[in-house]
């Protein structure tokens, strides 16, 4: 899913380079938090992204299937905990998404000034 | 919550703003700045009695010279233990909040500074007694600043700069810059203070000697600066929570 967008057409519109998996507000939030935190626990994501457990699980499943995150389940004492870590592909995808967003903003601002 | 890849909320500016908000929140949650400052303040205050107890005193007809052996015996292990304690505190606190920690580069920098200090102090203690700098004359100010920079308190400041960068912590950066200015440029030199001597037993000299108070004020000032900042960061954190 991500392979198609790794080499966007440089002459095309910046939006064509956006990854459908990453360019989604919640999933982008998950990637951003996991990148900054090194590793993040399921509960932290649920609280700070204001999601239900089921909804978060669906988004994580999409990201895991795309190879962007690793999900590790374990116990801390008697409490089950799920830790999410960004993969190398996830880091790259996040950096590319941010770059595309900045390009899009620059394009929008240029277009607005031309008018 | 939507699962569409493009929605009204997917305006690029809004998405970038969301990313910035989330990442700055994560950084805030990972911080434990006050613990680092309080540990370093405690280590600085604890150094004062070591300085006294392990001071060597050599007297001849022209007067007495003091060598602060406690610096070498105390600071390298104390710094290593302090940075280990800070790293463990950061990791435990971050894990309890459901996050990873980004303190490792700081702890490594701190440990490296401890080794650098020990090496520099040992080399200076071996070389300078037979080769006094500037022919034994008055030392230029830049020399004093350099000497302070590679002293434990200067190295604490350099490591704090690394922590401020890791945490993207502007408040800590400002404090550290002020701390370095205070420590390097403002803190009184040994000659600036005319405090009376005080009879204390020195393990190294083996007798009760009149040792000068003069090196103590700068340590108290530095310790107080770290302690005050630690308390301030702790209060700021509580008010944010």
From TrEMBL, chain A:
SUPFAM superfamilies: Winged helix' DNA-binding domain
UniProt keyword annotations, A-Z: DNA-binding
Domain Winged helix DNA-binding: 26-105
Pfam families for this protein: HTH_34
Species per Swiss-Prot/TrEMBL record: Actinoplanes italicus
InterPro entries the UniProt entry points to: WH-like_DNA-bd_sf, WH_DNA-bd_dom, WH_DNA-bd_sf
Name of this protein: DNA-binding MarR family transcriptional regulator
Molecular function GO labels: DNA binding
Keyword DNA-binding part of the UniProt annotation: yes
Automatic annotation (TrEMBL), chain B:
Taxonomic superkingdom: Bacteria
Membrane in keyword set: yes
Keyword Transmembrane carried by entry: yes
Bilayer-spanning residue ranges: 32-52, 72-91, 103-128, 140-163, 170-190, 210-233
Keywords assigned by UniProt, alphabetized: Membrane, Transmembrane, Transmembrane helix
Protein name from the UniProt record: Uncharacterized protein
């Amino acid at each position: 899913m991500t392979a198609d967008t790794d080499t966007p057409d440089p002459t095309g519109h910046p939006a064509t380079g956006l990854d459908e998996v990453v360019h989604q507000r919640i999933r982008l939030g998950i990637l951003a938090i996991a990148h900054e935190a090194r590793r993040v626990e399921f509960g932290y994501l649920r609280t700070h992204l204001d999601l239900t457990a089921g909804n978060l699980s669906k988004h994580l499943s999409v990201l895991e299937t795309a190879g962007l995150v690793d999900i590790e389940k374990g116990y801390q004492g008697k409490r089950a905990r799920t830790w999410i870590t960004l993969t190398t592909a996830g880091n790259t995808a996040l950096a590319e998404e941010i770059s595309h967003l900045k390009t899009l903003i620059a394009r929008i601002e240029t277009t607005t000034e031309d008018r | 919550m939507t699962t569409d890849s493009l929605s009204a909320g997917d305006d690029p500016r809004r998405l970038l703003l969301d990313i910035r908000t989330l990442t700055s929140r994560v950084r805030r949650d990972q911080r434990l700045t006050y613990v680092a400052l309080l540990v370093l303040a405690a280590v600085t205050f604890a150094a004062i009695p070591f300085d006294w107890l392990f001071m060597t005193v050599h007297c001849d007809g022209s007067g007495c010279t003091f060598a602060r052996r406690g610096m070498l015996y105390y600071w390298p292990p104390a710094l290593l233990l302090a940075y280990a304690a800070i790293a463990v505190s950061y990791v435990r606190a971050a894990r309890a909040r459901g996050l990873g920690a980004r303190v490792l580069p700081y702890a490594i920098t701190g440990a490296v500074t401890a080794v650098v200090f020990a090496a520099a102090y040992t080399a200076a203690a071996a070389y300078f007694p037979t080769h006094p700098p500037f022919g034994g004359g008055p030392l230029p100010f830049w020399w004093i600043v350099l000497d302070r920079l590679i002293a434990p308190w200067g190295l604490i400041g350099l490591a704090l700069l690394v922590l401020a960068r890791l945490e993207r912590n502007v408040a800590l950066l400002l404090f550290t810059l002020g701390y370095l200015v205070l420590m390097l440029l403002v803190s009184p030199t040994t000659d600036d203070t005319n405090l009376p001597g005080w009879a204390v037993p020195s393990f190294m000299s083996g007798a009760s000697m009149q040792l000068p108070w003069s090196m103590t004020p700068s340590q108290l000032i530095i310790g107080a600066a770290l302690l005050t900042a630690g308390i301030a960061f702790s209060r700021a954190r509580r008010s944010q929570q």
